[in-house]
Amino acid sequence: MNYIEELFARQGALLRAVSRTGSRRRAEESREGEKSPSPAAEVWELAEETAQADAAATLGFGMDYLTVMLWGLLPFGVTQVYASTLREVGETRLPMLASVAAILVNLVFNYFLIFGKCGFPEMGVTGAAIATVLSRYIETAIIVVYTHTRKE
């Protein structure tokens, strides 16, 4: 089960628990003569309990993502230097086209690597990070190669 399916399953379980717990509490409290808490308060209480359990998993996913993203810092920096220099001399088209190419690469490889399509392994959050790093390297290659091979 991937992260998104797990999230939806937990939301469904949370809603079922709120429904059962709320009905049970209202029945017990009406017998005792106490006023029952609002459904919003019950949802908030259960959401806090679920959030604490999910916080550790979310932190793990975040650490996995950031660890892979570190490999993309160098090409990102190089791209920023080249793109800003090109824009300063009036060449705005190349950085834009390289950025569009990177977005398309990221989009395609996100689909492949997150969900495991076209023979790629299902990697979830780590796959999203790998796709982003790959797109950064491709963007850098487009800008650097074009800049150094262009004859003026």
Contiguous low-pLDDT stretches (5 residues minimum) are none
Can you count the helices?
5
> What do the pLDDT scores average to?
82
Strand content: under 5%
Helix content: over 70%
Q: Assign an overall shape.
A: elongated
N to C succession of SSEs: HHHHH
The Cα radius of gyration reads: 25 Å
Task: Tell how many strands the DSSP assignment holds.
Answer: 0
Class by alpha and beta content: mainly alpha
Terminal-residue CA separation: 55 Å
Main sheet attributes: strand count, strand direction, barrel closure: none
Explain what the structure shows.
With about 150 residues, this protein is mostly helical. Helix content is about 80%, strand content about 0%. The protein contains five helices and no strands. Helix 1 runs antiparallel to helix 2, helix 2 packs across helix 5 and helix 4 packs antiparallel against helix 5. The longest helix is centred in the middle third of the chain and has 31 residues. The protein is elongated and about 75 Å long. The termini are far apart. About 15% of the residues are buried.
